[in-house]
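Appendix B. Extra example for self-study. Work through it before the problem class; the solution is given directly after the inputs so you can check yourself.
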Amino acid sequence: MRIRPKKRLGQNFLIDKNIQRKIVESSGLSVSDVVLEIGAGRGEITSLLSRKAGFVYALEIDAALCEILEVNLAGLDNVEVLKGDVLKFDFKNLFAKINREVKVIGNIPYYITTPIIERLLEHREKISSVFIMVQKEFALRAVSGPGSKVFGSLSCFLQYYTAPKILFPISRSCFYPAPKVDSCFLQLSMRKEPAVKVNDEGLFLKIIRAGFNKRRKILRNSLKDIIPQRKLSEFFQKYGIDKNTRPERLGLSDFANLANL
Ligand code: SAM
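Solution. Structure tokens for the complete assembly:
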């Protein structure tokens, strides 16, 4: 059955068979794994996943594609197609049914990358790893560290909860229709404990967001509305940090020290 890709649903189908195989191989699946695939599309990755994993839940928002999935995946007794929107999906209910950690895999629409990851992080205790296709620039931000031009609040947020790793790049020509951007396959391994210890997580994340909000400003100025100047001075002095430093010079542990202070 032929379908016309819907741009509004980010339908850029992965047509390169080698990359489809590489995605499944690099996810290191075994029969003991339960996989939740986000945006199953026409089910090409899904059927490869079903050969390696114990069970695959294939989530797809598009009713027409769900019908195609039912046809294409008929006969695979370890796959269940779930029709739904990943941003509204009842993960709690699904994860309660599965009595082990889940691997989440997906060639997802890029315009909802961050909200999807935020939702998955809310359920991180039920997820061991997330393997997703992302825009190359997103992947570079995910793995960047202090001093890098692209290091920012997203890098901190992801690295706090997960260990991000770029598995391989994917050229735009591997998709139909070809998107205007290049991609990377990214692994986010959930940390059992966050990367740094903070007493008040809300404050820690607020400081990071405010700190990077105006990245060309020095940190002292960006944070002046949420931290008293005398506390900031104490922080710079205690940790030997230049008081005119910019946010991208600080690492996660510096932001943790500041929040804890
Ligand atoms: N997995 C297929 C592949 O690799 O060829 C399709 C990938 S395509 C980039 C993204 C898929 O996600 C589409 O099938 C699209 O319909 C689906 N999708 C878009 N928004 C979604 C949402 N909010 N929830 C679930 N699936 C969604």
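Self-check: Residues 9-14, 38-41, 44-45, 59-62, 65, 85-87, 107-109 surround S-adenosylmethionine (CB under 6 Å). If your reasoning did not lead you there, revisit section 3.
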